[in-house]
Amino acid sequence: MTWLAWRTLRWHPGSLIGTLITLVVAATAVGSLWFVVDATDRQEVPVERYAGVPLVVGTTGGAISPGLVAAVKALPEVAATVPEHSFPAGLSARGTPVRVPGDQNPWPWGHGWSSARLTPFQLRDGRPPRARGEVVVDARLAAAAQMGIGDRVEITVAGTIRPHKVVGVAAAGTAWRYQSALFFADGHVAELIGGRRGADALGVHPRPGVGTEALRVAVAKAVEPYNTPGLRVISVAVGAGRGEQENNILSPEGFNTMWFSVWITALVSTGMIAAAMGMSIRRRGTEIAVLRAIGARPGQIRRMLLAEGMLLSVVACAVAIPLGMLLAPVVAVRFRDFGAVSVAFEVGYRPAPGLWTLAFTLAMALTANLISVRRALRIRPGDALGETPAQGRRLGMGRLLTGLALLAGAGALSAALLWEVIPPEAPSLTLLQVVTVCLAVAAVGLLAPWVVLVAGKLVRPGITHASRVGGYLAVASVVFNHRRYAGAVASLTLGVTLVGVVAGTQLFYNWRRASDAVRDLRADHVLRPAAGASALSEELRRRILAHDGTSAAVGIGSIPAAVSVEGRPLAPNPPPFSATMFTGDITQALDLSIRGRPPRDLGEGEIAIDDSLAARYGAGLGSRLRIRFPGVAEGSSYTVTTIYTSAPEVKSMLLPAKAISATHLTSELHELIYVRGADPSEIVDARSAVESFTKQEYMWRRSQEHAAQNRFMPYVSVLVALFCLVAAVNSLCLTLVDRRREFTGMRHLGMRRGQVMRMVCWESALTVVPVLVLSLATTAWMALVHAVSEPGGLAGTLSFIPFDWLAALGGGALLAALAGSLLVVRVAMRNERQGLA
Q1: Which H or E run includes 677?
Q2: Fewer beta carbons within 10 angstroms: which end of the chain, N or C?
Q3: pLDDT tens, position by position, 511-526
Q4: pTM above the 0.70 mark?
């Protein structure tokens, strides 16, 4: 039976080529993703900064207190401890910022000289830094800037520029590829980081004879009292885990993202393959009918087609697996841009991904075959007596009724959203919007062939007037036999509409996030550190506040904290919370809805909390809360004197920065500085890596950041759309391949080759253009549904329609359809001319 399958394919080369191309494209996409996933599963963050120490106690934000350092140092298994401070420090030489290719962070990392042995670093030239204004640079920085001992440089930390003198050049004793280092005198480091006494990491050396595992167990036991449920920010790392504690190369949680990409690609590919195989079976309907007429049983037909699919899959994988290996590094670059893999990620090649690609392709082909074989078994033996099996020119009513039902459901939900049946603040609103989008996309995918049919009837007079032969015949073909184009129309509609709706929804949420950010903003300007920096200094805030025309300058920063109600047992797994530490009158910067005393009047032992935290713990004005900050063994008691409405710019708690001034945590560094009055950019040095925004500019930047953080789904939708585009163009071209007799008959009736080509071009346009209009209308519909859910959203409805995405994808679809159709017709005409000769 397999031999018979190949014999039938011999007379339908278009079906064979179309199915094979579809399988190759699908297997290449799956294979390239699988090679990346396989390499990610085995990838480890390289250890650079802490390569010279067997164990590291790591955290962020200086949470390792002097008490914890003393507790670890007192362990009998420990020979020595090395506290480490790590902070971004911009370096400029001769007025030019120094950048080293390959660094993960745009800026070098600053450290105290006493922690140089953690790598270890050794002086190659010069001496260690001993005083304020002296710095040792690593060899990579010295080579990049062509500087040496005695050169004057500028160091930028927390928005403040300080002159320094290079007194030494140090070289790493191990691999040093993804970061650069600056070393300062230990006493000077405290000034640079705002007086913070807490360390960012703690290197631990064991006593002779103590193994790494025994050391890890002992140190973990000493660290445990400084961690608490809901605030486990201190970790103990050995081996490859030390690399993640460097906080330079992040180890993203991208594994699930890539698996999602594999599965969504496989799902869409299965649909593509099923469509291609179904079309191949329909084109061989006569041969299959003959086999049924001469006694072939349904089981034999099924085995014949399944074997055919398996053989095609093996041939496709022989081509696709090498292509997937070549494409995998390109895919890895895109995932690196998305933050799904680290900068150190490298694709590795093993036999396993190739074998899994083969197995996956066989599974996709088998599933697609099982879907398509049902069509073959519906072919009656009596169809062999006709020219072609009776398939009908019209689509079934079941598809139409299903599409109309889904459209009615989407319309009903849209009406509920437009009339605000569900309040805008209700948690179920987002779910309702998602369901509406899904129903609308599915509905237009099912109804698209009828839209093309109606559009053909509407434009018939105009096209007939424009092209009396080619246009007239094209409209007649699309209207009379629109089932012929149903597969291409449905695939293209689904792909383009999905991109439009997903990208439009993302634009809306970008706008909403930015709008929420500035909703409560009273400040005229916002300052924040540029990329690579991490904070702004209190010195900068005071300088801005002293500037003429400035009425307020408020600095804020955030810090994680564990919360419990005094007198109640601590929950086993409490949710994480954060507190906003502010310096200045925060009510001058943010318009907070407050019950109780203004936050500026908070005294010692008093705290402000938002309404969500108050509701969770049943707290009110006068309630006593126990707050525990990172690296503190015991919590402190605070009285709630203020409750404010949740706001995007502040966390769940508000505390004046002076509340932690007596701890090991800093109180003189800020994440943002809000300014009312004069433009602070007049006094901020352009070289200090401080970004200054007006209120409108700040809103736009927040929108851009949200888009960058959530760009994965729009690109996944584009991937799905490209698959759908390939399937649609493939379907259109294969339809033309099977119309060779029709074209030959037209030529015998006197039509010129140009008229035939114009006819197929009109057919492509009549198929693609209505789809683009339908997709645009659906996208606009969904944009309107989203816009009405937010105050002021209707004014920006047009901005939520991704015209650029739709134009690029729609234009590409039209050009691909025209090019494919012309190519197929040219080949058919050449064969016809050779036959006549």
Answers
A1: strand 672-677
A2: C
A3: 888 887 788 899 999 9
A4: yes
